[in-house]
């Protein structure tokens, strides 16, 4: 009986394997040797000017939380099941009334349009084409209205203005643009101590310098394909989406002023937004069970357990460690999601097993957009999707509903 069933299983799985190899063979030369999301980081280091790469890759202070995010996934190992018919497996998930093709999406990354040409549009449109969610950053350089029109399934992430009189106008603009899901990031009361930005020469606003000019000259693909192309076709980039009106130019000294003074914000501001906002509301930056309860009680349909990729408070707990505690408290009432540190399909599945309905990746997709544009982002999504698919098969799972805590074992205290 076993031998008679084997050909059917092989036939069902063969197209997936062939598609993966065929997709790689059809890639442009500079993407063919990129076999994992880690490879995109190495390629982006060579492609981007040192200040820009340092901004995207860096974290706060000693990068303890940045490393802890990755280490947290090593604290769990899989307990796989064998001899299970997984020929009909799929990784679709349902969230907020929509079915997505995979349990991962694109996290918001600021000023992405100077790392990749039209980066916000590239990320949003490629995610939509692959039927995964993308979150547009509030510190983006392309007007939100353009992205919402080009990729209507995109979510919008906002940093609340420190001047609270400007909050209502921003919320009204997001709604008028057509976004159905609003993500409010709440873990930036003050600017983080990102010493790496100083060391790599990144500043906000960007300041022209001989070092920046030299970095651009020795990286002509970025200089010609992103920076000069942007200036010629669209003029000087502005912070387009911080307020109801256009924000400061990228090179303006007022850019830093516009993003400070948030230390007085509190849950009452979220309550007011919940009363005015008619769409889905997600609170991003939760690392405490009581905060998760507060957000849920206010009426948030989702929360993102996140430490901002290690970019804010160094030494804070890794989101994967907090995830099961948050899920146990509010997972029956709201959609619990997670970001920070995810680089492999196995990471995605470990987070799902601990209760995440969806996970998000920022840096890897930003690197992919910088190195390869839409083709790069599509390749990154395909690599991660194929890893999830293979790992599901080897776990003996046919759907995300079967990826539970029973699939995991603690590997160290």
UniProtKB/TrEMBL annotation:
The record ties this protein, via Gene3D superfamilies, to: Aldolase class I (3.20.20.70)
What transmembrane ranges does the database entry give? none
Keyword annotations for this protein, in alphabetical order, are:
Flavoprotein, FMN, Oxidoreductase
The record's InterPro entries line, in alphabetical order, gives: Aldolase_TIM (IPR013785), Alpha-hydoxy_acid_DH_FMN (IPR012133), FMN-dep_DH (IPR000262), FMN_HAD (IPR037396), FMN_hydac_DH_AS (IPR008259)
Q: What are the protein's GO molecular function terms?
A: oxidoreductase activity
Q: Which residues form the FMN hydroxy acid dehydrogenase domain?
A: 29-413
What Enzyme Commission number does this protein have? Answer: 1.-.-.-
Q: Which cofactor does it need?
A: FMN
Q: Which family does it belong to?
A: Belongs to the FMN-dependent alpha-hydroxy acid dehydrogenase family.
What is the protein's given name? Answer: Alpha-hydroxy acid oxidase
């Amino acid at each position: 009986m076993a031998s008679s069933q084997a050909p059917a299983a092989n036939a069902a799985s063969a197209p997936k394997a062939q598609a993966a190899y065929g997709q790689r063979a059809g890639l442009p030369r500079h993407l063919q040797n990129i076999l994992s999301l880690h490879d995109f980081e190495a390629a982006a280091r060579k492609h981007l000017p040192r200040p820009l790469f340092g901004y995207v890759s860096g974290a706060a202070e000693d990068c303890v939380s940045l490393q802890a995010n990755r280490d947290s996934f090593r604290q769990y190992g899989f307990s796989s099941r064998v001899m299970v018919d997984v020929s009909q497996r799929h990784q679709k998930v349902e969230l907020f009334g929509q079915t997505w093709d995979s349990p991962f999406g694109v996290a918001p990354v600021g000023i992405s349009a100077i790392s990749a040409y039209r980066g916000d549009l590239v990320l949003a449109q490629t995610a939509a084409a692959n039927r995964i969610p993308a979150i547009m950053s509030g510190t983006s350089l392309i007007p939100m209205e353009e992205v919402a029109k080009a990729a209507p399934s995109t979510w919008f992430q906002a940093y609340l203005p420190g001047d609270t009189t400007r909050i209502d106008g921003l919320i009204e603009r997001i709604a008028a643009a057509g976004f159905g899901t609003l993500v409010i990031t709440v873990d930036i009361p003050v600017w983080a101590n990102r010493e790496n930005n100083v060391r790599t020469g990144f500043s906000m606003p960007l300041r022209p310098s001989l070092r920046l000019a030299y970095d651009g000259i020795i990286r002509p693909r970025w200089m010609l394909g992103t920076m000069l192309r942007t200036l010629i076709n669209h003029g000087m980039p502005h912070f387009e989406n911080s307020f109801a009106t256009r924000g400061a130019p990228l090179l303006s000294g007022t850019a830093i002023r516009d993003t400070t003074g948030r230390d007085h914000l509190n849950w009452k501001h979220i309550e007011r937004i919940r009363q005015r906002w008619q769409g889905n509301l997600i609170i991003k930056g939760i690392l405490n069970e009581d905060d998760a309860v507060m957000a849920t009680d206010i009426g948030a349909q989702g929360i993102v357990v996140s430490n901002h990729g290690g970019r804010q408070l160094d030494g804070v707990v890794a989101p994967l460690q907090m995830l099961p505690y948050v899920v146990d408290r509010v997972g029956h009432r709201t959609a619990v999601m997670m970001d920070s540190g995810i680089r492999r399909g196995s990471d995605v599945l470990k987070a799902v097993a601990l209760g995440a309905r969806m996970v998000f990746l920022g840096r890897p997709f930003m690197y992919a957009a910088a190195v390869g544009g839409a083709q790069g982002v599509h390749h990154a999504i395909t690599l991660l999707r194929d890893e999830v698919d293979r790992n599901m098969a080897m776990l003996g799972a046919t759907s995300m509903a079967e990826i539970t805590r029973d699939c995991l074992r603690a590997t160290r205290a």
